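Reproducibility note. Readers wishing to regenerate the assembly model reported in the main text can use the exact inputs given here. Chain order matters: entities are listed in the order in which they were concatenated for prediction.
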Amino acid sequence: MDRATVEAKMTDLLVDELGLDRGKITMGAKFEEDLEVDSLGVVELLMALEDTFGVSIPDEEAESITTVGQAVDVVMEKLAG
Amino acid sequence: MRNAMITGWGKCVPPAVLSNADLETLTDTNDEWITTRTGIKERRISHVEVSDLSAVAAQHALAAAGLTATDLDLILLATCTADRAVPSAATMVQAKIGATNAAAMDVNAACSGFLFALSVADQMIRAGGAQRVLVIGAEKLSFFLDFTNRSTCVLFGDGAGAVVLEASDESGGLLAFELGSDGTAGDLLCITGSGTEGNPMRTLPPGILMEGPDVFRRAVTAMGDASTRVLAKAGLALDEVDLLIPHQANVRIIDATARRLSLDPARVFVNIASYGNTSAATIPIALTEAVEEGRIRPGANIVFAAFGGGFTWAAAVFRWGSRTTPITTSAAQLPPSTATALELLAPNIALHGKGI
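Running the prediction on these inputs yields the following structure tokens for the assembly.
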């Protein structure tokens, strides 16, 4: 799966699962500050990512994810590894 | 086939209301923050003990079943906030309602406690060891509220719910259940200063500790997956589920669990806005309200799911019987009190201070 596909699916999940405004989602957007997604929201996103991409993202790694782009990075890493 | 049917139901919530606006005066929070993150608008703060809340709920459940207390042969009280370690709150309830023929004990599986107790009661009846069991879930979590911990102090409240489970030849009852525990992660959700840990001179004050995001993920996964397994065990498809009654811990856990199950939100019972998380009491309170609101028709397939400290989790499929109206009603009520929630919480504030 290429990065553009992961980014597109990530955006869909943020809109469908967390109810975010599509126009606000950029790869540099910070979950807490820019998108008003709190820690439980990030966990909800990670669970949706796990289901969508068939990967496993442990909580310890989850704590280091603060932007949309970083979430894409983690998924790319898991898909490659 | 000998089954165990729920023939009575009742609840007791104390009168004092702690609103989100009240919490704004105690800790660094606001109504919008609490509502969007938890779904909770208010919770009840008790002026009496767990055994008092339980006894009133029990009397309503007995009346709904058309029984008197002496008809009971077993009382199981799920709680993690019993009045005392000894005697158990269950035996205090036995005395308060006059259930002289019943054995009584407490069950502690934290927020999953009611489903643990319900499963034990069901199996006791099926095995012939009991005929009529009173199963109660009751808590006084306000005892542990610490307003300097803003992530947990907004969540919890007090209350009690009860059901009467009776041996029956009617088909239905508990079609399948699953109980689970994982003690390796117990520190992620715990109540400190609540047992004999340490020594009698210990100074650690009581408090509720919770790693929210970790608990969230485990709760959604455990409740969703256990529900899926009990449905398979019962041979039921998702579209045959009439109502999911989940433990009311956080509306986002409930929503995420329903999504994980692909269950229509219209078939999920949610009353967390009114009571917050009352631990073992949430499911019997919710069940009582669901019956009273006409949400349960004769023969309805109900799925229960819970997750709590321990960790513990449980799920069950219960097929309701033919009767959805109480046989009689009870006038039982708590001793009157005009104390406000903030007045009742003055000792908590004196011990821990405020969060602002």
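We highlight two features of this model. The longest helix of chain B spans residues 212-234. The domain at 3-352 of chain B is CATH 3.40.47.10 (Peroxisomal Thiolase; Chain A, domain 1).
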